Amino acid sequence: MKVHCINDATRGRGYACFVCSEISGKAAQYTFSLCRACDQTFLGKSGWQSGEEKHSPVSQHANGSEVTLSVGPFITDALDDNENYRLTIYTEGMSTQSSVFSITNLNRGLQTGTGVVQMAAPRPDPAQQAPVPEVLSEPEASLPESEPQDELPEPPPPAEKTKRGGLVAVGVLLVLALAGTAVWWFALREQPQEAPPQTGEQPQNTQESTPQQPLEPPQAKEDVQHPAQPLSAREQVRQYLGGAPTVQGAMALSRSLTASQEALSSETQDSVYRLLYFAAQNGDVNAKLQLAKIADPLTPAWGSLRKSAAEAWRNYGAVAPQRPEAAQAMQNLKKWLEDENAKGNAEARAWIEDIARDQ
After folding, report:
1. Which end of the chain is more exposed for a tag (fewer CB within 10 A), N or C?
2. What is the mean pLDDT of the segment spanning 26-36?
3. Contact by Cβ (8 Å): 237, 274
4. CA-CA distance, 115 to 195, in Å (whole number)?
5. Structurally, how many domains does the chain consist of?
6. Residue 287 predicted with pLDDT over 60
7. Rounded to whole angstroms, how far apart are CA atoms 309 and 292?
């Protein structure tokens, strides 16, 4: 099966079509999954994840051995032009088929923070909305005019006693003010001190004067240079592949990262896989052999990558003429698949079918 991705000219921006050719068999309803090559993660409802999840196309069209699957912004916004992807098709009553493809000039839709697009609800058609009945406001009932009220009589003028009380209060305040001024003048006011008679002798200072030292300008503090923190393996690989990478440089960086740590972390192993994948895509035999060992179910786990006997078989077969150890690994893998298939391992049976289609 071969896959290439094109923009959906019918639906417009945010929609694309996966054109799958050379498909064996037909099915009434197709489902598919997407795997990202750099870290072997699958597209799920919340973004890229380790577990595989199936999706249904917006629409599908079959024409002979070619099937076109139309997808919406949920899929297109999660794809990157700088990555390769593997599309796996699942059908009713037919074995799975997969193929690797890349993205070029894809018209994406609206992005959200997690890579999952939330489509806005369609606006209702104004013509189909029921008319809203107008509510006629009733005229307000006129209130009867209030009858004029009689004016209040003016208050009588203040009595004579009120005037006399005010004059007495003013007089008391004046007396208190004069008494307070007299007490301050005679008792609380400081008396001026007489200056002592001056003589011809000048008083001597008991403390000897010391010459003042000139002020020195403050010395500028020396800049303390802290050593730069080393970049993580993921950041080193991201910067390298984002520049002008070469096969030799990618392999050298992968050896440096694996040799710098005794026990490689999962993040470092995933970063080394990206370097090996880049080198293998550009024809490096050693990189393809390393990718085959990483995907081989008989080898220890590598980072967050899933094992795939079919992927290991393809890479082993690509380098077997140059590397005898790859041919021996293929024989061991074939025997293991046959044993597992005899035990009823469904995943091993699917890998055997996938390998048989490539031959």
Report:
1. C
2. 82
3. yes
4. 92
5. 2
6. yes
7. 9
Among 47, 79, 102, give the residue marking a domain's end. 102
Q: Which DSSP helix (H) or strand (E) runs through 33?
A: strand 30-36
In this prediction, residue 135 carries a pLDDT of 42
State the pLDDT at residue 99: 80
DSSP-derived secondary structure for 227-243: PPPPPPHHHHHHHHHHS
Greatest mean pLDDT among 66-70, 167-171, 204-208 lies in: 66-70
Query: Can you give the residue range of the structural domain that contains 344?
Result: 233-358
- Listed in sequence order, the residues at least 6 apart from 63 whose beta carbon sits closer than 8 Å to its beta carbon are none
Among 171, 37, 32, smallest CA distance to 102 is for 37
Nearest to 276 by CA among 309, 303, 310: 303
Which neighbouring-strand residues pair with 35?
Answer: 42, 86
Provide the residue type at 305 as one letter: L
Q: Compute the distance between CA of residue 315 and CA of residue 311 in angstroms, rounded to an integer.
A: 6
Predicted local distance difference test score (pLDDT) of residue 137: 44
Residues counted in the chain: 359
Mean pLDDT value across residues 90-101: 72
Q: Would you say residue 92 has pLDDT above 80?
A: no
Say if 351 falls within a structural domain. Answer: yes
Helical axes 324-342 vs 285-295, angle rounded to 10°? 20
- Higher pLDDT: 6 or 196? It is 6
Q: Is the dihedral of CA 170, 173, 179, 185 positive or negative?
A: negative
The β-bridge partners of 71 are 16
Integer angstrom CA distances of residue 102 from 105, 173, 223: 10, 101, 50
Q: Give, as one character, the DSSP assignment of residue 184.
A: I
Tens digits of per-residue pLDDT, 253-278?
999 988 877 678 889 999 999 999 99
Q: Where is the domain boundary, 102, 132, 164? A: 102
